[in-house]
Amino acid sequence: KQWYQRRVRGNLPNTNGSSRCRIGKTEVLVGVKAEVVDAALHNPSKGKINIAVDCSATASPQFAGRGGENIEQEILSVLNLLYSSIDALNLADLCIVKGESCWLLNIDVLYVQCGGNLFDAASIALKAAVHSTTMPNVSVSGEGIEMELEISDDPYQVWKLSTAMCPICITLYQEGESFAVDVTEEESECSTGYVHVGVLPSGEVSAMEKSGAGNMEPIALLEMIDAAVRIGMDIHKQLDRQLLAESTTATL
Question: Phi and psi (nearest 5°) for 165?
């Protein structure tokens, strides 16, 4: 029901990319900031991403104190799972000089208002923010200790990240013998358990995680995954159309 109330916007200041996503009463901001760092020894030809989640106590009373910290960790765990299970982002594109320098994407997720469906809203906003991200061109001169990097400040000398493999999360809540998606904050409290399913634009399941104390029958779990794939593909199509329209408008 609430999916059709979704709104995604961007243009947060001092970021390489950003988005603001509203689903029902839930509103989340995502900002992407890029910085040059040393390449990792175990991945010398790849860049890095770092996701942080902030559940503001002003967004909901449940975010106050330890409650907010626990929710932040759970959301962060799901987002890290989505972006580490597959090559959601082509980290090789973030390499500047193999074994020397690379881009680090700091992705900050901030909840402004809470009305349920926190995981799915964050994943949608994250994909939208990555889509809007522009990376400056870097020129390299010299070698060894004399190597120098020059980051272009020309707004037209930039390149874009690909979101072709970015998953979104569809969370399904078990309620008795049935299940529900896109639940409100009150509805989620009636659930005995829930499943997060990472869905790619192609419909492939990239990740899955179960939470809560309730047991799920294998047949019921398969039905939930099937529903998540159908819903996820539909959301991807809607989101991609909106992002394409906004990108086209921005270049006019």
Answer: -115, 15
First to last CA, the chain: 34
Element (H or E) spanning 46, and its range? Answer: none
SS3 category, 203? coil
CA distance 94 to 96: 6
d(CA 229, CA 232): 5
Tokens representing 33 are 């900031």
Predicted confidence (pLDDT) at residue 45 exceeds the cutoff of 70: yes
Under 8 Å between Cβ of 109 and 21: no
Residue 39 and residue 41: Cα distance in Å, rounded? Answer: 6
- With beta carbons less than 8 A apart as the criterion, state whether 152 and 137 touch: yes
pLDDT of residue 208: 94
pTM for the full predicted model: 0.90
155-167 in b/e burial notation, b at 16+ Cβ within 10 A?
eeeeeebebebbb
